[in-house]
Amino acid sequence: MKDALAGEDAKYSIERDDGNVLDDLGRTYLNPFPEWPEGEREAIAHAKGSVLDIGCGAGRVMLYLREHGYATVGVDISPGAVEVCRSQGLVDTHVMSAENIKFEPNIFDTVLLFGNNFGILGEEPRIIKMLKDLHRITTPDAIILASSRDPEATDDPAHLKYHEWNRERQRPVGLVRIRLKYKDEIEDWWELLLASPKDMNRLAQQAGWTLDRTFGPQNLYVGLLRKE
């Protein structure tokens, strides 16, 4: 993200534990609104009040919201991401894990989990705990705008083979084990849950939320969750 802010493409790779590799560009973390995924462009119109951006990355969403008069707070587990945000004037940004959200109750009206971040904690019990924490720190009529992928909205043979491998291991179809590679650096393996709208609603309802509607195509959609 620092290199992207300095003007580089910052090409990196996402490796899955079956050997599948996807290349992407770090500069996408800085994309302006017209270049966001369709679901995010549609969903952001429903943001309201005080906004918490979880996994805020380089701050692209907070910058957009700031331009439209919203008060935003950002959190990211990466100190480098927080540094990039603060260098752009997004000073209310903090190093914090989605697994350990620490804010007072009833503060936020909107929570963002863009960038495929609904399943950022991987295992379902951890995601449910996160959603319970978000229930506590949000106002009674708060919403969550959460991005994910329906894992089965694909005809890619490599992904379908991975689904079968997960079934054989008695793992959720959409639970993937990945790591990022950039230049000479390789991070540790971690797990990401790709959730269909049905699964998003199932997990949300165990934490006091319900899926109201979705935006964008199923292979990268945003769900609007409301408090029950």
Key words describing this protein structure:
7 helices; five-stranded antiparallel beta sheet; Rossmann fold; alpha/beta
Please explain how this structure is put together.
- The chain has 228 residues and is α/β, with parallel strands linked by helices.
- The chain has one domain: Rossmann fold (3-Layer(aba) Sandwich), CATH 3.40.50.
- 27% of the residues lie in helices and 30% in strands.
- The protein has 7 helices and 12 strands.
- The protein has helices at residues 2-5, 38-43, 60-67, 79-87, 124-137, 157-168, 197-205; strands spanning 11-16, 21-25, 51-54, 72-76, 93-95, 108-113, 138-148, 175-182, 185-186, 190-193, 209-215, 221-227.
- The strands form 2 sheets. It has a 7-stranded mixed sheet with strand order 5-4-3-6-7-12-11, with helices on both faces.
- The chain starts with a helix and ends with a strand.
Gist?
The protein has 228 residues and is of the alpha/beta class.
Topology:
Blueprint: H1 2-5, E1 11-16, E2 21-25, H2 38-43, E3 51-54, H3 60-67, E4 72-76, H4 79-87, E5 93-95, E6 108-113, H5 124-137, E7 138-148, H6 157-168, E8 175-182, E9 185-186, E10 190-193, H7 197-205, E11 209-215, E12 221-227
Parallel strand pairs: 3-4, 3-6, 4-5, 6-7
Antiparallel strand pairs: 1-2, 1-8, 7-12, 8-9, 8-10, 11-12
